[in-house]
Write a structure and sequence with these properties.
Layout: H1 13-18, H2 20-30, H3 35-49, H4 54-66
Length: 67
């Protein structure tokens, strides 16, 4: 089983842009934890998905917001 302990916390914007899918997964896994960490992940994830095509960006943004 995969849980939050198996998913890295990604807050580095450069890494987030290189790995947007993993960053969104990080937001899902850690978005309900420490608020400061959750906000840092969400900001990195939002930056990571901004260059994606519209449909994909909108989907990912909704997932980030929900997390």
């Amino acid at each position: 089983m995969v849980g939050p302990q198996g998913i890295r916390v990604i807050v580095d914007p450069d890494r987030a842009v290189r790995e947007p899918e993993l960053t969104v997964l990080s937001a899902i896994a850690h978005g309900q934890g420490d608020p400061e960490t959750a906000v840092a992940i969400a900001l990195a994830a939002a930056q990571a998905v901004s260059p994606l095509p519209d449909e994909q960006r909108e989907l990912c943004s909704g997932v980030i917001e929900a997390a």
